[in-house]
Amino acid sequence: MRIFTVDAFTGKPFSGNPAAVCLADGVTDAVWMQDVAREMNLSETAYVSSRGDGSYDLRWFTPGLEVDLCGHATLASAHVLWEEGLKQQEDAIVFHTRSGGLTCKLLHSGRIEMDFPVTPVEEATPPPGLLEALGADPKFVGLSAVGYVIELPTESDVRALRPDFAAMRDMTEDSWAVVTAPAETGGFDFVSRFFAPQGGVDEDPVTGSAHCALAHFWSQKTGRTAFRAYQCSKRGGVVFAELVGDRVKLGGQAVTVSKGELLA
Asked: Which of 44, 113, 151, 203 is catalytic?
């Protein structure tokens, strides 16, 4: 069974967000999938299985659990299918997932565009201890399907965060959080970081699904619908996000850094 490591939301190796992509036709054993994801120990391991009609089933696992939506591992999966010649580059790829159908297209620019559902952000009260664990003094706190959305005054504030991940893991309520601010770095509209210790990922390098919430949030604030965003983790990555009705067009590049074979 072939497995790939792909850096997503980047055009150069060893940056962006690495995902494992397993071509797992016919495999349905979730326990085995979780074991492999724990072994790979990346933010996400994706399992791609052909339906035989040109579309694919797609599932995503962190080292700790299966998730409903993942942007960077979807981008990585589409990249593998095109790069390995399993789909023609001019053909769109349809993935069937726990979040419904997701379509990926390869643009002439070399960027992969993904069609995802929007996850609206509503103002909310954070659970006790979350802001303290993050070390954040927010302008706004909201909640979406991807977790809490926390706006800080400046990009420098976002970059300076040093969360207490042990405290976040010990919280009794869900504590997944995306922290964002207007960009100070030229060429970008906003920045973010994403923390999910309870999901087995202390800080996710680049989080496509979070931008389904961030596109909605920043559109509400600015009146705009299209953004070029930077996730300012240590690895860093660029995400294009455009709000189109109840969908978000997410775009980015990907680079394969390894290919191998699962023996177990």
From this structure: 44
Q: Is 84 a catalytic residue?
A: no
Pick the CATH number of 122-243 from 3.40.50.2000, 3.60.10.10, 3.10.310.10, 1.10.8.60: 3.10.310.10
Q: Report domain extents, the chain.
A: 2-117+250-261, 122-243
SS (H, E, C) the chain: CEEEEEEECCCCCCCCEEEEEEECCCCCCHHHHHHHHHHHCCCEEEEEEECCCCCEEEEEECCCCEECCCHHHHHHHHHHHHHCCCCCCCCCEEEEECCEEEEEEECCCCCEEEEEECCCCEECCCCCCHHHHHCCCCCEEEEECCEEEEECCCHHHHHHCCCCHHHHHCCCCCCCEEEEEECCCCCCCEEEEEEEHHHCEEEECCCCCHHHHHHHHHHHHHCCCEEEEEECCCCCEEEEEEEECCEEEEEECEEEEEEEECCC
Residue-wise pLDDT for 55-85, tens only, equals 999 999 999 999 999 999 999 999 999 999 9
Q: Which fold has domain 2-117+250-261?
A: Diaminopimelate Epimerase; Chain A, domain 1 (3.10.310)
pLDDT in tens, 163-178: 999 999 999 888 999 9
